[in-house]
Amino acid sequence: MAVYKRPATLKKNPSGFCPGCMHSLSTKIIAEVVDEMGQKDNCLHIVPVGCSTLNLVYWQGDILGAAHGRAPAVATGFKRTNPERLVFAYQGDGDLAAIGLAEIMGAANRGENFTVIFFNNQTYGMTGGQMAPTTLIGQKTTTTRYGRDAETTGYPMKMCELLATLEAPAFVARYALNTPKGVMEAKKAIRKGFEIQMAGKGFSFIELLGNCPTNWGMTPLQTLEYMESNTIPYFKPGVYKDKYKDEVK
Amino acid sequence: MAKVLVKGNEAIAEAAVRAGCRFFAGYPITPQNEIPEYLSWRLPEVGGVFVQGESEVASVNMVYGAAASGCRAMTSSSGPGISLKAEGISYLSGTQLPAVIVNISRGGPGLGSIQPAQQDYLQATKALGHGGFRVMVFAPSTLQEAVDLTYSAWDYAERDRNPVLILMDGCLGAIMEQVEFPEMKEPMREGTKNWSLNRVEGVHRSDRLLTPYFPEAMLEMQNKSRALMVKRWEENDVKVEEFMLDDAEFVVVAYGISARVAKEAILKLREEGYKIGMIRPITLFPFPKESFRKLDYTKVKGFIDIELAIPAQMRDDIALEVKDRAPIYEYCRSGGFLFDDDGVYTAVKKILDGGAK
Question: What is the pLDDT of residue B201?
Answer without folding.
Answer: 61
